[in-house]
Specification:
single chain; mainly alpha; 0% strand; flat
């Protein structure tokens, strides 16, 4: 469980994260308001944490370690290639410059 929360609430939070808000819900919340944006961002972060905790529930320590190692490897690859030029972007820039 996540910080003593009920498993049903964690599962509901995980499902809400996957489904995301309906566009009409966003309109009703007045998303042009900065406070509303921050509240939604905080809620999204909490829901993502709940979904992560739900996914890890009952997993073996070795399995979690293997997944974390894979994520670390992907991040290292991304960092090594972050500053490399992207051929698609270069083509687009050249096309725009005409």
């Amino acid at each position: 469980m996540l910080n003593g929360e009920e498993p049903g609430r964690v599962a509901s939070a995980a499902l809400a994260f996957v489904q995301g808000p309906a566009s009409e819900d966003s309109a009703e919340l007045g998303l042009e308001d900065d406070r509303a944006e921050k509240a939604i961002d905080a809620d999204d972060e909490a829901t993502a944490e709940a979904a992560s905790a739900l996914g890890a529930d009952g997993a073996a320590k070795g399995d979690l370690s293997a997944e974390l190692a894979a994520v670390d490897e992907m991040l290292a690859i991304a960092e090594r290639h972050a500053n490399r030029p992207d051929a698609r972007v270069a083509w687009l820039v050249n096309w725009i410059k005409g």
